[in-house]
Amino acid sequence: AMKKAVPQAAALLLEKLLLLAHLRPLPAAGTDTDRGEPPPATAPAPAPPAAGCLQRGDLLEVPRTLFVHFGIYLGENRVAHLMPDILPALTDDRRQIQRVVTNKRLILGVVTKTASIRVDTVEDFAYGGSILVNHMDRLFKDRLLGSEEAARRAEKLVGATAYSLLWNNCEHFVTYCRYGAPVSLQTDKFCETVKMIIRDQRSVLASVLVGLAAVVCLGLAPSTTLPTILVTFLLWMAG
């Protein structure tokens, strides 16, 4: 019971952090979205493009508050997209896996680095958000593959896969399918932000203050002093 309680508590904590960060929450199990109905909204959300306006192989983007979700349109109102999901690692029941991914499934998938490339309707993929179509083509004009080739690549990859927030996310999946190489501009931007934080010498001061606070609160011990010295040294050398 204790082993099950730990990941459940971690999932609950991460879920609350996502909500505090104003991320759009995914539906809980048993909601109307599990049956394919759109979630209730306080204000009317822009409708996704009609399936007739989309072409097989199109790259679809759904901007969120802190990130962008990506998918490849396969035709017939179907979108292939990569999502963190713990369930494919626990069961082969395709009916359960195909249900809309809940917060806990997604968070545990991120933690355990497991995911699936799944096929959903355009509406479920967009989840009430607006969709940009082939918005990245302007950045990769010289690497653009044929639409049919992009769709076939996506279809071949459908199923369970490894997940990495930095090295194998939904953006890597779609850029590989449409442009021939896995690229993530979101990852590049995140890494540049981390570099800026590390290079800022105020980070050294902040780490010292946090370390001193830990020593004052927890007492002088290797578990508090060694991390403080090590982190401060690494930030100083990297700066």
Task: Write structural notes for this entry.
- By secondary structure, the chain is α+β, with helices and mostly antiparallel strands.
- Among the domains are: 126 residues, endopeptidase fold (from Nostoc punctiforme), CATH 3.90.1720.10; 39 residues.
- Helix content is 46%, strand content 14%.
- It is built from nine helices and six strands; from the N terminus they run αβββααβαβαβαααα.
- A six-stranded antiparallel β-sheet has the order 5-1-2-3-4-6.
- Helix 1 packs across helix 3, helix 5 crosses helix 6 and helix 8 runs antiparallel to helix 9.
- The radius of gyration is 21 Å and the shape is elongated.
- The N terminus is likely disordered.
Tags for this entry?
239 residues; alpha+beta; endopeptidase fold (from Nostoc punctiforme); 6-stranded antiparallel β-sheet; 14% strand; disordered N terminus
Topology (elements, then pairings):
Blueprint: H1 2-20, E1 59-63, E2 68-75, E3 78-84, H2 94-98, H3 103-112, E4 114-121, H4 122-126, E5 132-133, H5 147-157, E6 159-162, H6 170-179, H7 185-199, H8 202-218, H9 222-238
Antiparallel strand pairs: 1-2, 1-5, 2-3, 3-4, 4-6
EC number: 2.3.1.135
Signal peptide: 1-30
Pfam families: LRAT (PF04970)
Shape assignment: elongated
Q: What is the helix/strand order?
A: HEEEHHEHEHEHHHH
**Second CATH tier, the architecture of the domain at 58-183:** Alpha-Beta Complex
Query: What percent strand?
Result: 5-15%
Low-confidence stretches: 1-6, 16-36
Helical fraction? 40-55%
Structural Rg: 21 Å
Distance between the termini: 45 Å
Task: Could you tell me the CATH topology label of the domain at 58-183.
Answer: endopeptidase fold (from Nostoc punctiforme)
Number of helices: 9
Going by CATH, the homologous superfamily of the domain at 58-183 would be: endopeptidase domain like (from Nostoc punctiforme)
CATH class of the domain at 58-183: Alpha Beta
The total of beta strands comes to 6
Residue-averaged pLDDT, rounded? 77
Largest beta sheet, briefly?
6 strands, antiparallel
Question: What spatial order of strands do you see in the largest sheet?
Answer: 5-1-2-3-4-6
Secondary-structure-based class equals alpha+beta
